[in-house]
Specification:
Archaeosine Trna-guanine Transglycosylase, Chain: A, domain 4, Pseudouridine synthase, elongated, five-stranded mixed sheet, 3 domains, PsdUridine_synth_N, isomerase, 18% helix, lyase, 18 strands
Length: 296
């Protein structure tokens, strides 16, 4: 079983639980995800089966998009709806005031990673320290908010669309917006809508998978190269394909450092290669040869 499943993760389920449930439904011997979603969050969770797991890291640095509901007037210790309330006040904020504050968070900003996070200190996740009441110093990190659009505001809850860079904590963004408004806030709900060029509209739920007969589930999988679809595609001749499959670099004219999706002459995905400064195309990550047609 090789391919990519675009899963619409349900509310209240951890990413690993969702992964294991999908793995059982597809009877996949090898599976992995491309970055976690909190149990509170729903939406797009790309999962990899078989040889596709070799490319799971490709999405770790990708731009992501979310639809977030930010509840004003209530701050929590985790910056989301699962945390304990640490402050509460009346909200008297106009939509214009909110729009003015949102403007401050567009572009390059600095965030303080939350204590309730999986970042590690001395081999231990920060959330373990937080559960013991220990607050550690954390360095600020720079992230980029490419888009921050207000969709609706009822005076207490704001629904916003966020496009952001790797490493952005949307719950920290929600809390920081609350601080800037002077009333506090937390992330009430979160839905991931896009990872790189993959969208939640392409995703399928666990219930929908389970409703299908086992024989029909493989049709739900995107191809092996789905996670690197943004890379230029090149086709290799039969001789070059054979050499590439055996780890040999081949002469190539192109920009040094460029990464390419490599296909054989019969349109079989071989893997990802990188153009070297010496004018060679060198394999970076290859699909196992026993998953490909026999080399000529």
């Amino acid at each position: 079983m090789d391919g990519v499943l675009l899963l619409d993760k349900p509310l209240g389920m951890s990413s690993n639980t969702a992964l294991q449930a999908a793995r059982r439904l597809f009877n996949a011997a090898k599976a992995g995800h491309t970055g976690t979603l909190d149990p509170l969050a729903t939406g797009l969770l790309p999962l990899c089966f078989g040889e596709a797991t070799k490319f799971a890291g490709e999405l770790l640095h990708a731009e992501k998009a979310y639809r977030a509901t930010v509840r004003l007037g209530i701050a929590t210790d985790t910056a989301d709806a699962e945390g304990a309330v640490i402050s509460q006040c009346e909200v008297d904020i106009s939509e214009m005031q909110l729009q003015d504050v949102l403007q401050r968070f567009r572009g390059d900003i600095e965030q303080l990673p939350p204590m309730y996070s999986a970042l590690k200190r001395d081999g231990k996740p920060l959330y373990e320290y937080a559960r013991q009441g220990i607050e550690l110093e954390r360095p600020l990190r720079q992230v980029t908010i490419f888009k921050l659009e207000l969709l609706s505001f009822d005076g207490r809850a704001a629904v916003i669309d966020v496009d952001c860079s790797k490493g952005t904590y949307v719950r920290t963004l929600a809390a920081d917006i609350g601080v800037a408004l002077g009333c506090g806030a937390h992330l009430q709900a979160l839905r991931r809508t896009r990872v790189a060029g993959l969208t939640v509209e392409q995703a399928v739920t666990l219930d929908a998978i389970e409703a299908l007969p086992a024989s029909g589930r493989a049709a739900l999988l995107a191809p092996l190269d789905a996670l690197v679809a943004d890379l230029p595609q090149v086709q290799l001749g039969s001789g070059d394909s054979a050499r590439m499959r055996h780890g040999q670099a081949i002469p190539w004219s192109g920009r040094a450092g460029q990464r390419l999706r490599m296909f054989s002459s019969d349109q079989c995905f071989l893997g990802v290669g990188t153009v070297t400064a010496e004018g060679l195309l060198q394999a970076q990550r290859l699909v196992a040869e026993n998953r490909l047609p026999d080399a000529p």
